[in-house]
Amino acid sequence: MSENSHDGDSGTGSTPATDPAHAPDRRAWVAPLISTVVTLPLGLIALFIGGLTPMACDSCNGAAADRFDASFTTAWTVLWIGLLIALAVLIASWAVPHQLRHAARRVGLALAAPATVVVTFVAFMALVDWP
């Protein structure tokens, strides 16, 4: 064994290089922050429009009102569940470890949150039996 060789040392006298994938990501907060700035207002707008939807059938009566009420109840439930899922995805984007190897997962979750709000709102609008 040579003098320069020590347990696990490459013989150069320096410490072994760390894996760059495990290095901290200094910009890990950017994608979740942009997603938060986009997702929360979208969700609030979806809730606002969903809350105003019952006024579309204020003058309805009889069978049209019954169909609207039944479809609105289902659609409202779908809207709330979808928005809660979007919130969970948004929180998950913040919770991903701040390492470079998790950057793609973090960006994917950050993109999925506002997309979930949009898909949920479209589903809500499609489920309502408009008068």
TrEMBL record:
Keyword annotations: Membrane, Transmembrane, Transmembrane helix
Keyword set includes Transmembrane: yes
Sequence intervals crossing the membrane: 29-53, 73-96, 108-128
Organism from which the protein derives: Streptomyces globisporus
Protein's recorded name: DUF4175 domain-containing protein
Renumbered residue ranges of the record's region Disordered: 1-23
